[in-house]
Amino acid sequence: MAKSTKKKTAPGDVATNRQAAFKYNLIERYECGIVLRGTEVKSLRDGNAQLKDAYATIDNGELWLIGAYIAPYPAASRENHPPERTRKLLLHRSELEQLVGQTKEKGLTLVPTRIYFKGSKAKVEVALARGKNLYDKRDSIKQRDMARDVQRELREVGR
User: Fold this and answer.
1) SS (HEC) of 69-124
2) Would you identify the CATH topology of the domain 13-132?
3) Could you report the per-residue pLDDT of 51-69, keeping only the tens digit for each?
4) Model's pTM, two decimal places?
5) Which residues of 37-69 are buried (b: 16+ CB within 10 A; e: fewer)?
């Protein structure tokens, strides 16, 4: 039997944006509720979501998730949802006003990092982020490689 090529997510997570930590410096994280239709919830419970090209934006005092892909639910033939529709995110007014002020600062953006269930409610973790330059990405790769080498050496010493 062949190995599955799908990357594992953390327990309880439906989808994670693994590229976000590589492309951005994540400054602060917020937990948001999300407005979903019935078939979207069922599809999320099956784990059919992707955040790779998604981002969040503030429009008219409301937070919106754009570009997140939630696959159509196969059992709902006619009543299915559009997979990449714009979805409203729910956040406390004080947190939203704080985000409005911070995103006006040059170079800051809102990036969804993961979708998960908390009890029966679907939640989206949105991070306030600043884009990395190319040399920052090289430094991240170098740090990751050095940590991997240290772990490899410690494992060899322990044998």
Assistant:
1) EECCCCCCCCCCCCCCCCEEEECCHHHHHHHHHHHCCCCEEEEEEEEEEECCEEEE
2) Small Protein B; Chain: A; (2.40.280)
3) 888 999 998 889 999 999 9
4) 0.75
5) bebbbbbbeeebbbbeebbbebeeeebbbeebe
